[in-house]
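BUG: 3D viewer hangs when loading the predicted structure for this chain

Environment: internal workstation, default settings.
Expected: structure renders.
Actual: progress bar stalls at 90%.

Input used:
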Amino acid sequence: MTGSKNLKIIQRLLKRLFNNLLNLFLVNKSILFFSEGLSFLLKNKKKIREWIIFSVQLEKKEPGDINYIFCNDEYLHNLNIKYLNHDTYTDIITFNYSENTCEISGEIYISIERVKENAQKYKATFPEELYRVMIHGVLHLLGYKDKTRIDAQIMRDKEDYYLSLLPKFIA
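Structure tokens produced before the viewer hung:
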């Protein structure tokens, strides 16, 4: 066999091994996607789940039940008033239901309208901004805050890092 044939065989075996390892990590992980108040279909769900799981595990945690609920501005605004006593529009609200320090669980509500507006405002594509907000919610479940300037910068740096890994999952 030539060197290039051997390399291709090794690459295929490594890819198969990587996929098998990913499948092992995905067992009993429940990351689900829903919509409320609008019709929205997330593309690449399986790959996004893999990215989220990988990101959580890099933070030395395990993902438990994580529900993403994509909604409109009014739906999220009403949640913001009802549960947080904030009469403002926002792009995301995260409810942390984690019961232990090793596993994260919660609900992440995302306003698709707000994400679209923010994508234009920050000169990003809609998917780029959506993925940023999605990982932002996960970072909140992991315990990161964004209320102070320093915490917000740490959060932004983490978002940028995990977004840089996304192309490895979504080709």
